[in-house]
Amino acid sequence: MPITIKSGEELELMRHAGFVLASMHEELRKALKPGMSTLDIDKLALEITHSYDGCEPNFLGYEGFPGTVCVSVNEQVVHGIPRADRIIKEGDIVSIDGGVVYKGYHSDAARTWCVGEVSDEKRKLVEVTKQAFFEGMKFAKAGNHLYDISAAIQKYVESFGYGIARELTGHGIGTELHEEPTVPNYKPIGRGLILKKGMTLAVEPIVNMASPRVKWLDDWDVVTADGKPSAHYENTILITDGEPELFSILRD
Q1: Spatial CB neighbours of 8, under 8 Å, sequence gap ≥ 6
Q2: Which residues neighbour 12 within 8 Å (Cβ) at sequence distance 6 or greater?
Q3: 108 is in which domain, residue-wise?
Q4: What is the CATH number of the domain that holds 209?
């Protein structure tokens, strides 16, 4: 699928999808507590999404995924399937990845939250992962190269001794949840395409506390190979001539 430049009307639809998704994440943050199951989180995510007219979760049924959101706990990296028997505990970190589609246009965002009192090591991992996204945003501007974003994320993450899973990347987004281009969290060979005003991307650092190696337990569930925690932070963004616009963050 070719990389698309979005029109003003298309961007308005994506802004709304992003606003609804950001609102969902904020409500889930407030609700998250020990004793909840990951299925409880999923049910609440569906309820919140449906409270907005015309909005649907775009993960539900995507290539057979059974949940509204992916809920990944501690060593789970991504794609955690919501389960009634996976109970959130004090000291866990919980990554919630989800998306909203509105009138055919998609948003995608992930957050990792600390549940109660967590270890300093886990809290630092969560903070570094979030900041890695914003380090990448310093280069998310028309005229720069795509891999400028990737290189900034990698440099920041690896300065803390953390690992970046090479198999898991960001992506373009618009009328499809996953579009071109692929957005790595590390710098491949070359510079990548030149960023243009009107491009929309989902940029998502996925950071392991130690080894970058991951393994698939089944068709969906990805965990760290060494059993150590992983964190995830993602937003849907618009490339402009200046600072990028972040669709999936609530504005004051």
Answers
A1: none
A2: none
A3: 8-245
A4: 3.90.230.10
- The amino acid present at 141, given as its one-letter code, is K
Spatial separation of the C-alpha atoms in residues 79 and 24, rounded to whole Å? 18
What is the separation of C-alpha 189 from the centre of its chain, rounded to a whole number of angstroms? 24
- The C-alpha angle 77, 25, 243, rounded to 5 degrees, equals 90
Averaged confidence pLDDT in the chain: 97
Q: Is the pLDDT of residue 252 over 70?
A: no
How many structural domains does the chain have?
A: 1
Confidence of residue 251 (pLDDT cuts 50, 70, 90): confident
Helices (H) and strands (E) in the chain, counts: 4, 15
**110-157 confidence digits (pLDDT tens):** 999 999 999 999 999 999 999 999 999 999 999 999 999 999 999 999
H helices of 120-248, where?
120-137, 146-158
Query: In 63-169, at which residue ranges do the beta strands (DSSP E only) sit?
Result: 70-73, 76-78, 93-102, 105-114, 163-164
Q: Is residue 3 part of a domain?
A: no
Is 252 a member of any domain?
no
Residue 1 lies in a domain: no
Closest CA to 72 of 234, 250, 237: 234
Residue 170 domain flag: yes
